[in-house]
TrEMBL record, chain B:
InterPro entries: 4Fe4S_Fe-S-bd, 4Fe4S_Fe_S_CS, Cys_rich_dom, Glc_ox_4Fe-4S, Helical_ferredxn. It comes from Methylacidiphilum kamchatkense Kam1. This is Glycolate oxidase iron-sulfur subunit. Its EC number is 1.1.99.14. GO terms for molecular function: 4 iron, 4 sulfur cluster binding; glycolate dehydrogenase activity; metal ion binding. PANTHER family: GLYCOLATE OXIDASE IRON-SULFUR SUBUNIT.
Amino acid sequence: MIDHFPESSLLISKEDLIPYSFDATATFYHAPLAVLFPSSIEDILWVLKWAKSNHACILPRGSGTSLSGAAVPQKNSIVLSMTKWNKILETDPDNLTLLVEPGITTQVVQEEAAKYSLFYPPDPGSYKISTIGGNVGHNSGGIRGLKYGVTRNYVLGMEVVLPNGQVVWLGNKCVKDSAGYSLKDLFIGSEGTLGIVTKVLLRLIPKPQERQVILASFPTLEAASEATSAIIKAALIPSALEFLDQKTIECIEAYSPAGFPKESQAVLLIESDGHPQAVRDEITRINQVLKQYGPLEIKIAEDPKQQEQLWSARKVAFSALARKAPTVLLEDVTVPRSSLVQMIRKIQQISKTYAVEIAVYAHMGDGNLHPVFLGDESNKDLMEKVFRAMKEIFLYAIKLGGTITGEHGVGLAKKEFLAYQYKSEEFQLLKSIKKILDPENLLNPGKIFD
Amino acid sequence: MDPAVIQKCIHCGMCLPSCPTYQETKIERNSPRGRISLMRAIAEKRMDLTASFAHELYFCLGCLACQTACPVGVDYKTLFEASRQDIEKSKILNNPLRLLARTFLIKYLFLSSWRLRTFGRLLRIYQRMGLDRFFKSLPFLPAKLKDMLGQLPSIAPHFSYEIISTREIPINTPARWKVGLLTGCVQDLVFSKINRDTADVLLYNGCEVICPPEQGCCGSLHAHNGELETAERLAKKLLAAFPIEELDAIITNSAGCGSHLKHFSDLFPPGTFWRQKAEVWDKKVYDIHEWLIKIGFSPPQAFPCTSQSHTVITYHDACHLCHGQKIKNEPRAILRSLPCIQFIELEEADHCCGSAGIYNILQPEMAHKLLNKKVEKIKKTNASVVCTANPGCLLFIEKGLKKHHLNIQTIHPISLLAQYYRMKERDGGSIEKKEANLAGLIH
C-alpha cells in the first residue's frame, strides 16, 4: 500500500495516527493502521481490495465529531478521510437541489443555500465542522428537527461505493419516487457500515422570511417539560424548542455570556419562523401556553444579532459542560413528547440514586433529551456508577416507547443497549442487511452491533 | 506538563474550523486537538518526544484562535509553550545552523536593549547607504537569501528613548492618571513612531507618561519559542525598570507583547518575591486600546468633510490581541470614533495573517499562504488603509500588499488617532509633539 500511494495522501507514522484514534466521544481510543486521503474513486476501490486481501477494514471518516464512537478505529482499521472531498458539484435553483461531495461542512452547505435565498435546515451543534458525509452517516438532527425534520428528510440521492466494489447511484432529483425500495434510506444512519458515500444530492427549501426567538425561564425542570408537552398538544410546531437546565446555562455563560438567566432552574429557547404574520400569531399562542406553567420570565430576542448569539451559545452546550468534569458522557435518549415530564423526573431520580451528577439539555420539542453524565475516567468507581445510571435511563426510555438514540447513532457507545430496543427478529433483520451488503465485514465493523 | 490541563480537552473538534494550519491541510495532527492528543500520548508515555512531534509544534502558529473557539476553556497557550520548552530541552531539533541562529537571536541579540540598538544602528547605516539594494542586485546571490534581506524591516531614524522623555506630563489638561509606557523591542527599532504616538495619545487623554529608557524585550518571543528561563530573566528586568507601585497602569501597544506581559506571574514560583511583584504588575498591564476605552478617551473633534473625502479603513485583529487578550471591540470603537472615515469590517478579520512572531521566517510556505488569503480579504473591502495593532502584522501585511502591487497603507490604530489629534492641534493647539509630522498617512 505504501508503494501505491504518494506520501502526501497516506499517513502511517505514529504522530499522524494518534490524532485519528478518537472522535468526540469520551473513553474510546484506538489508533488506525493508516489514514488515506483518496484522490479518486479508483483509490477507494483499490484500498477496498487491499483491505480484503490483508484482513484489514475501512472506516470512512469526516471531521470526527461523532458522539457515539462511530468514527473510532477498530483493530486493523484504515481510516478513509473524506475531508478533502469538499466541493459543491452543482447548485440547481430550478429544482432546489444541491449536489455536493461528502467532505463539505454543514455550514458551507447552509451558506451556499442562503446565497439563493434557500434553506438547508439540518443543524447539528458541530455544524461549523461536521461534514455532510458524517451527517448522512448518522442521520444527524440538531435544533430544527421539530418542524423541519433531520438529514434524512433532505437527502434526495447519493453515489455510494459498495463493499463489493460496485459504484451505485441511488435516488434522483424528483420530488416523488416510488420505484422499488428506497435504497438510499438504508445508507442514511448506517454509520459507514454499508457503503462509502462519495456524492450527496440534497434538497433545499425556501428560506423563511421571518424569525422570532423566545427565551422563557422556569423555577423547575418539570414546569419547563410540562410547558413543552402542552405546546405540542396545542398542535403548535415552532422551528425549534430547546431546553437547558441550570448546570448547562452556567457553563455556557462561562464560555460566552449570551444572556441566559443563570438563576433559573430551566429555560426554554423557542424559535418560530415563516411568514411574518404566521410568526406573530404563533408567538402569541406559544406565549399563552407558556404563561400557564408559571414561568419566571418570558423574553423575546430583540434583533437577529441577539437571536444568533443565543443559538451559537446553545450549540456549544455539550463542550461547555466539559468545564464541570474531566470526563463528560453525552447521551441522546428520545421519548414520545407526552412522556417528557416522566423522563425528566426519572433522570433526576437516577442522578440521586447513583450519586452521579447529570446535566440535561434537550431538543425538547423533538422529545430528544441530552443527559450529560459528569464523570472522571481516572475514577473507576464513579465511572461504574455512571454506566449503571446510563443503562437505567436507556431502559426507562425504551419502556416509555422511546429510543436509545435520537441523532447520535449507536456506534460503540450504545451497541450494548440496541438489543433491548429491538425484539430478536427485528434485531436479526437489522443484522441481515449488513450481511447482504458487506458479507466480509470490511466497512467499519463492530459498530451498531457486533 | 500538567496532565490536568491536557485532559481538559475532550476532542470535540470545535477548534478545527478556527485553526489556520488544519484548514489548509485537513490533517488532524495539524489541528489543536491533534496536537493535544500527541502531548497526551507523550505525557502518558505512549509515545516518545520525537522530532516529528517537535516539527508539528513549530508548524503551529501559536495564534490561539483555538482558545477563543474552545467551549471547554482548554489553556492551549500553556500547553504549547510548555511543549516547546520540552522540545528545546530535549535538543531533538538541534543542528548547527539552527543552534547558531537561535543563540544569536534569542539568547544574545534580544537579551539587552544595548545589543538590539547597536544592531539597529548598524542595520540603519547599511540601509541608508543603499547596501541592501546593492546586495539584492547581485546576480549570484541565492534568491532565498535575497528574499530574507528583503524581509529586514527599515530601521526607524530614532529609537524610542530619543523621542520620548523618561517623564512627560500633559500640558492642556491636569494629569488624572500616571502610567508606564512599554516601548518593546521590534517596536523600538522599527516603529518608534508608534511609541511616540502612544505617548501623545496618553498625554492628550490626561495621563502622565513614565517611560524608562532602558527596557528591552519583554520575553514573549522567548516564552513562545521554548525559552521560558530566558523569558523569566527578561521579565525581572522589566519589573525592576518601572516604579510599579506608583503607576495606575502599564501600557503596551503591541499585541504579542501584551498577551505575554499580562501573565508574568506564571513565570515565577508562588510565594517568591518576584511572583508577588509580578502579580501586581499583571493587574496593571493594559493594552492601549483597552486602557483608552476604560478611562473614556476623548474622540477627535469632528471637522467638516465632504462625502468624497471619506477614507475607507478596515481592521485586522492581531491574534494576540483578539485571541490572546480577548480585545476585539476596543480598537474598533476607537476607529469608529474617527471623523471622515468609513469603517468596513474585514472578512475573517481574526484569522492569522501568517506573521506570528518569527513563524514567517521559519515556515515561509504556510505563512505566505495565509498572507495571500489575508490580502485577498483586504482587497475585497476596497479600503485604502488597514489598521492593526501589532508590529509583526504591520510588517507582514505591508509586505503582502506590496507584493500584490496594492496601494493600501498599513497603520497602527493609535497612530491614526494621534494623527487626528494633531490635525486639530494644527489649528492652534499646543500639545507637546516631538515628532509631529506623520503627514500624508491618510490623505
